[in-house]
């Protein structure tokens, strides 16, 4: 039985009605148009995917070009699945799969990524929890959801007033950090992907989550059309398509990007993969502690990956498939993409384009829909061989790009900049002499957070608190959330320029690098 279209198309404020500014006929296409015309979307062009867009020219992806690729892949997956007669009834039963919904969700999925990408996310989370006593901290997915439902402005309502289906499709992790749903997902055995607390800190709630408690009612309303069809913690099919498309897109383009900038070298990748292939049987016999203690020796990191996959994803991990995936990636990378250094020639560009097209096609064609997937997977997933290949591609990127000390050095500086910026903005916000000159947007964000939190004071448990907050505590938390919202909405370049200005290092006034 299909879900009635009008339930999926229900907007938070406007029912199913079409507004005068809507140009498209489909309500989901309207959502897509609202997202792409948002300044938060344009901002993604200045936000780090892996390294800052400014320093890399046109060579590497930023969060905008990444989001466009995710949308392209997500749409292609949807078109294949909906054209496949094997899945027609199943997709309807699970709540539907619409190409405009997945495209809109894919375009919106990274709106909340702060300056400096995942690194900024980690720093803002620590600052939010420790400095501002906000139990929800900061999370990029929850911030994306907050932008479309609260902080982005459109017409008379707050947020973009998107349809339920699109908001639900944005929820890769349809739970809050600590309390929703009950019992909380982190206590399930096994917990869904992302639901466990970060290693070493069981008090921190889920490592990943889709919404802050201030957006909980909105999350509930978005999931309403799927009630009874999906477990509370399970992604909608459309969210699952978007999540899979995200994985496919960055697994491929991260490798491409670092080949282009000359960081991913054929020799080092070949040594690691081939040492594992040569010594696989011997390595398998070693205790974990020995492998970990000698992780820098060739082949050991691949062995660590094999063990991690078996431990965390035993529902799909398989030694034969792993061995085949290492061989396939070796062939494609060592004998293919990385065989000649990238020199900007037409031939080199064609090599990258061929690699990208072949892999995208191979992975999209391997997508399946399962009626009853394992807890760590969504309903939409890659076949076993291709799932292992994606893990190996991501491994190459982690081992030979993300683990580089020069990148770490750079990121330590960026982390410090974010901490200093938050502190400097907060000092400004609480300076009584400066109230009249504080940027209007910060005042507005404080008022918004204060109103949202005031609505929850009688329910301290939902706020993640033990007792009802005092007025002063509430104001302090609202100010903290406002600063976090403000910083998260900057590009990398704006964050740097703003910190320079607040530290007295900038000699420029009335430039266009940020609008206050
Ligand atoms: N420590 C890390 C981890 C990831 N990345 C990069 C690699 C990918 O390009 C991208 C992956 O992160 P996403 O936010 O796109 O997706 P995930 O699925 O990993 O996370 P989430 O589910 O929170 O979106 O970020 C990075 O630079 N540094």
From TrEMBL:
<feature type="domain" description="HD">
    <location>
        <begin position="63"/>
        <end position="251"/>
    </location>
</feature>
<protein>
    <submittedName>
        <fullName>DNTP triphosphohydrolase</fullName>
    </submittedName>
</protein>
<dbReference type="Pfam" id="PF01966">
    <property type="entry name" value="HD"/>
</dbReference>
<feature type="compositionally biased region" description="Pro residues">
    <location>
        <begin position="189"/>
        <end position="201"/>
    </location>
</feature>
<dbReference type="InterPro" id="IPR006261">
    <property type="entry name" value="dGTPase"/>
</dbReference>
<keyword id="KW-0378">Hydrolase</keyword>
<dbReference type="InterPro" id="IPR050135">
    <property type="entry name" value="dGTPase-like"/>
</dbReference>
<feature type="region of interest" description="Disordered">
    <location>
        <begin position="188"/>
        <end position="207"/>
    </location>
</feature>
<dbReference type="InterPro" id="IPR006674">
    <property type="entry name" value="HD_domain"/>
</dbReference>
<dbReference type="InterPro" id="IPR003607">
    <property type="entry name" value="HD/PDEase_dom"/>
</dbReference>
């Amino acid at each position: 039985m299909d879900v009635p279209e009008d339930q999926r198309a229900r907007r938070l404020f406007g029912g199913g009605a079409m507004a005068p500014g809507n140009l498209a006929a489909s309500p989901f296409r309207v959502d897509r148009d609202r997202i792409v015309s948002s300044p938060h979307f344009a901002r993604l062009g200045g936000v780090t995917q892996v390294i800052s867009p400014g320093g890399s020219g046109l060579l590497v992806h930023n969060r905008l070009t990444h989001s466009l690729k995710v949308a392209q892949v997500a749409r292609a997956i949807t078109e294949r699945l909906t054209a496949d007669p094997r899945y027609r009834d199943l997709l309807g039963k699970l709540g539907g799969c619409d190409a405009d919904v997945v495209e809109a969700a894919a375009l919106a999925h990274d709106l909340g990524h702060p300056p400096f990408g995942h690194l900024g996310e980690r720093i803002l989370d620590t600052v939010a929890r420790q400095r501002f006593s906000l139990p929800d901290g900061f999370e990029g997915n929850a911030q994306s959801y907050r932008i479309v439902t609260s902080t982005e402005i459109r017409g008379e309502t707050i947020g973009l007033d998107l349809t339920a289906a699109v908001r639900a499709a944005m929820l890769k992790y349809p739970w809050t950090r600590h309390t929703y749903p009950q019992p909380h997902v982190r206590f399930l055995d096994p917990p869904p992907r992302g639901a466990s607390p970060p290693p070493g800190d069981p008090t921190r709630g889920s490592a990943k989550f889709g919404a802050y408690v201030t957006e909980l009612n909105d999350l509930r309303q978005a999931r309403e059309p799927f009630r009874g069809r999906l477990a509370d913690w399970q992604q909608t099919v459309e969210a699952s398509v978007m999540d899979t498309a995200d994985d496919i897109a960055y697994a491929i383009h991260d490798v491409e990007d670092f080949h282009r900038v000359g960081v991913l070298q054929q020799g080092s990748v070949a040594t690691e993969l081939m040492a594992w292939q040569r010594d696989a049987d011997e390595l398998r016999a070693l205790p974990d502690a020995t492998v970990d203690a000698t992780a820098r020796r060739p082949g050991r990191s691949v062995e660590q990956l094999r063990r991690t996959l078996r431990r965390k994803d035993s529902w799909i991990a398989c030694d034969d498939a792993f061995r085949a995936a290492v061989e396939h990636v070796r062939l494609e990378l060592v004998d293919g993409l990385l065989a000649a250094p990238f020199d900007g020639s037409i031939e080199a560009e064609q090599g990258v384009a061929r690699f990208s097209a072949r892999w995208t096609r191979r992975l999209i064609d391997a997508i399946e829909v399962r009626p009853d997937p394992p807890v760590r997977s969504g309903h939409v997933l890659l076949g076993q061989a291709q799932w292992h290949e994606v893990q190996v591609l991501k491994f190459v990127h982690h081992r030979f790009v993300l683990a580089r000390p020069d990148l770490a050095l750079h990121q330590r500086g960026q982390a410090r900049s974010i901490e200093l910026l938050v502190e400097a903005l907060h000092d400004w916000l609480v300076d009584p002499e400066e109230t009249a000159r504080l940027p209007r947007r910060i005042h507005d964000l404080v008022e918004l957070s204060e109103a949202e939190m005031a609505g929850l004071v009688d329910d301290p448990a939902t706020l993640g608190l033990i007792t009802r907050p005092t007025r002063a505590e509430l104001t302090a938390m609202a100010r903290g959330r406002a600063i976090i919202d403000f910083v998260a909405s900057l590009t990398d370049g704006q964050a740097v320029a703003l910190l320079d200005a607040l530290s007295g290092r900038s000699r420029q006034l009335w430039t266009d690098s940020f609008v206050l």
